[in-house]
Recover the amino acids of this structure.
């Protein structure tokens, strides 16, 4: 915006200027008379200046303004200023006094910036000191010692003239041993807005109150029916606990006229904490710890519901995606805009189901309101037709002597709602010190009043502060908004109303070029590789979800995790962002790997046809379906699968079970054949890793059968021959025994005839031992040395003992 826009449209009247100059002259007359009546000074005294002068050790005493009430006084009010003075020098300060000085009117917004930048500069000009009775004196300030002060002055005593912002200075004067004369040793400049009467035309001010956090939830959920969520850490519990950052945001915003700008992911995360949730252990072997902040989460959501009950609520896309990163690096990656559309689609339902209010989803809010044509195009691609920009990155308009109203039509039915840069950035920085907080409040009020006095045109002003204010920053913002809402020159307005207000025809509507985008912001953007990884994970999710009997158990948590992977809160944290995205992809790989084929070793087939079993294992909680198992022979001339090169069979496996599928094979030749088992989704996309194994074919042909039959016949013939030979041998032996018996009987008869007594002593037939071959042996019979021999030739296959 041109510097010309800083000048007010009004100036002091000639009569008022004459009056103030006359008062200054009259006030200086007694002092001049007193100086003329002084006695001659000694040489030492003559060396000292006759009036207070700046200390040579620039700002040896630090002065702070910790409180200024009221921030914008009216007639009849008493202005109270309090703070501390601290001697930073090495010399003690004597005759010290803290006083107030009202400087000149600051009639431009840039002059306010200059005073704020040099608020502790003792060389900067200060106004005339207010009556000495409104000062606080210290006999001595020792080195390193701080002393509090409080000064109260009726507003009527401040000699404030026309409406506007005045430089209010708190100064400390005193002497040191090496400079024994009165001098200004410390100063603190602040701002005093002055407009006691109600303005005829008030500026309509919209203050965006952001309820946004960083990413806390992972894609992982428990296998139980409730799908217990898993968090990265338990830091969100600290933010929503009493005194935490988000707890303060809700408590402070409840009593303010603001527009709530909410990331639905924050609400969803806190709602997930209202039941059982888990946090990863310190190492991989630890079981997940159970979060114990259910009561805190329920209380916080209840407070949010009360706070927004009668307020405007704007819902950002789920996860607050980084629109600039998406525009500069993500649009060239297929599917990236799909995630922005999904994040926008679920935003309204998430907020409405939790807070019971209907939010607006018409607004896109790039980081720090920095835009270029590609950012505007991406921001509106998901349905938003209003882009919140910021004045320091958007042309204000040529030759304007005032800050134009917020809405700017930029073509294509899109409106750029340009937030005021000075009002939006005043709360940046450390607000834990009371002096910094007070200065921010007074500077905010000063800029607001100066803006209001620029013109009598009705205008809408939007304030878009930092996305995640600290608790101290939120406290400072609340104080400033409260003071502004009590002021005489401003009135609150919703963001939707501000966007619909009549645009200023003189305001600039040209969107800044890509080269004008701040380099400091571009360095913090998510790289192209981040969107490539998100796209790769989405592709894996698309393959996985089609086989599930209950897709919502996986699609919802992973879809929201992918939204979180492109959140604006990852800016400045590239390592953490990469770890989160990799964690999402790795967990998805783990889940999809629970449905797999069991490895097989070599299979042997003996016969022209046989079946080969292939087992599918499902270790998921839910069942899988819509899968096809294909078994393919790499050598179909040797081994066919059901008469073809491959066969497919549909698969459905219950959760926690396995299923074996049998394929019929036909062998055409002996040897090894390699087969491949692969799962496919119904759309023909491979699922999981294939399983490859060999099949060894040992087929029985007709030739083999003849050889086997011949061998069997030979064995039968050999057995028959052995049987006949043994039968003939037994007959011969029986005949020989008969002949031997007959010969023995003849010999016995002859002996009996020659010697009759001898026949009486011969054993009877019953008692005589049987020496015939084949007779049973007696215990006293000696064992034969060899078996009886036969003179016949041995038969084929018969064993012969020699």
């Amino acid at each position: 915006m041109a510097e010309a826009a800083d000048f007010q449209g009004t100036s002091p009247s000639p009569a008022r200027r004459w009056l103030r100059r006359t008062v200054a002259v009259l006030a200086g007359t007694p002092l001049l008379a007193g100086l003329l009546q002084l006695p001659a000074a000694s040489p030492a005294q003559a060396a000292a200046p006759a009036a207070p002068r700046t200390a040579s050790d620039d700002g040896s005493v630090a002065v702070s303004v910790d409180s200024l009430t009221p921030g914008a006084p009216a007639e009849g009010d008493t202005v109270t200023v309090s703070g501390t003075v601290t001697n930073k020098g090495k010399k003690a300060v004597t005759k010290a006094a803290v006083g107030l000085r009202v400087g000149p009117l600051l009639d431009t917004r840039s002059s306010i910036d200059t005073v704020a930048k040099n608020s502790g500069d003792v060389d900067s000009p200060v106004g005339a000191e207010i009556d000495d009775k409104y000062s606080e004196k210290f006999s001595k300030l020792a080195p390193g010692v701080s002393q509090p002060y409080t000064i109260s002055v009726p507003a009527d005593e401040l000699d404030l003239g026309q409406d506007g912002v005045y430089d209010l200075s708190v100064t400390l004067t005193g002497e040191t041993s090496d400079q024994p004369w009165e001098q200004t040793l410390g100063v603190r400049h602040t701002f005093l807005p002055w407009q006691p009467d109600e303005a005829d035309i008030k500026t309509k001010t919209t203050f965006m109150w952001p309820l946004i956090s960083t990413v806390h939830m992972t894609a992982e959920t428990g296998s139980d029916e409730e799908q217990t969520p898993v968090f990265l850490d338990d830091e969100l519990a600290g933010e929503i606990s009493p005194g935490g950052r988000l707890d303060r945001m809700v408590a402070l915003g409840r009593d303010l006229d603001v527009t709530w700008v909410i990331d639905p992911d924050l609400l969803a995360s806190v709602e997930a904490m209202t039941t059982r949730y888990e946090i990863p252990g310190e190492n991989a072997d630890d079981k997940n710890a159970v979060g114990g902040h259910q009561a805190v989460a329920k209380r916080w959501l209840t407070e949010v519901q009360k706070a927004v009950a009668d307020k405007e609520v704007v819902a950002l896309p789920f996860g607050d995606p980084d629109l600039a990163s998406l525009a500069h690096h993500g649009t060239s990656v297929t599917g990236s805009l799909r995630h922005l559309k999904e994040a926008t689609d679920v935003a309204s339902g998430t907020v409405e189901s939790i807070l019971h209010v209907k939010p607006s989803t018409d607004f896109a809010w790039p980081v720090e309101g920095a835009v270029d044509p590609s950012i505007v195009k991406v921001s509106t691609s998901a349905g938003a037709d209003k882009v919140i920009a910021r004045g320091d990155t958007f042309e204000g308009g040529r030759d304007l002597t005032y800050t134009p109203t917020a809405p700017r039509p930029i073509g294509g039915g899109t409106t750029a709602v340009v937030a005021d840069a000075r009002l939006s950035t005043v709360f940046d920085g450390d607000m834990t010190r009371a002096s910094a907080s007070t200065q921010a409040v007074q500077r905010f009020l000063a800029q607001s009043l100066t803006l209001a006095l620029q013109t009598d045109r009705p205008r809408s002003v939007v304030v878009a502060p930092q996305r995640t204010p600290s608790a101290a920053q939120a406290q400072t913002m609340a104080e400033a908004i409260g003071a502004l809402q009590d002021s005489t020159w401003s009135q609150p307005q919703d963001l939707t109303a501000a966007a619909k207000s009549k645009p200023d025809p003189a305001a600039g509507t040209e969107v800044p070029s890509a080269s004008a985008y701040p380099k400091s912001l571009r360095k913090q953007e998510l790289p192209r590789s981040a969107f490539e990884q998100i796209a790769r994970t989405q592709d894996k999710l698309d393959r996985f979800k089609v086989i599930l009997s209950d897709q919502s158990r996986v699609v919802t948590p992973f879809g929201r995790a992918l939204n979180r992977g492109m959140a604006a809160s990852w800016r400045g944290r590239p390592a953490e962002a990469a770890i989160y995205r990799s964690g999402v992809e790795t967990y998805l790989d783990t889940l999809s790997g629970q449905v797999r084929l069991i490895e097989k070793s070599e299979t042997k087939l003996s016969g022209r046809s046989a079946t080969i079993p292939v087992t599918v294992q499902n270790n998921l909680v839910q069942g899988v379906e819509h899968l096809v198992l294909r078994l393919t022979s790499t050598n179909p001339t040797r081994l066919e699968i059901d008469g073809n090169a491959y066969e497919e069979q549909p698969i459905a496996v219950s959760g926690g079970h396995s299923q074996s599928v049998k394929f019929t094979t036909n062998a055409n030749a002996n040897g090894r054949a390699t087969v491949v088992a692969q799962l496919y989704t119904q759309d023909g996309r491979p699922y999981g890793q294939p399983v490859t194994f060999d099949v060894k074919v040992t087929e029985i042909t007709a030739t083999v059968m003849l050889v086997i039959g011949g061998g069997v016949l030979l064995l039968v013939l050999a057995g028959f021959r052995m049987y006949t030979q043994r039968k003939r041998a037994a007959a011969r032996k029986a005949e020989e025994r008969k002949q031997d018996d007959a010969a023995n009987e003849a010999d016995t008869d002859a002996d009996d005839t020659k010697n009759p007594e001898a026949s009486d002593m011969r054993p009877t037939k019953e008692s005589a031992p049987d020496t015939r071959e084949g007779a049973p042996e007696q215990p006293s019979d000696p064992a034969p040395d060899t078996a009886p021999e036969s003179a016949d030739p041995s038969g084929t296959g018969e064993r012969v003992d020699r």
Summary: DSSP finds 20 helices and 31 strands in the chain. The CA atoms of residues 92 and 142 lie 5 Å apart. The longest strand covers residues 179-194. Residues 1-58, 282-287, 752-802 have pLDDT under 50 and may be disordered.
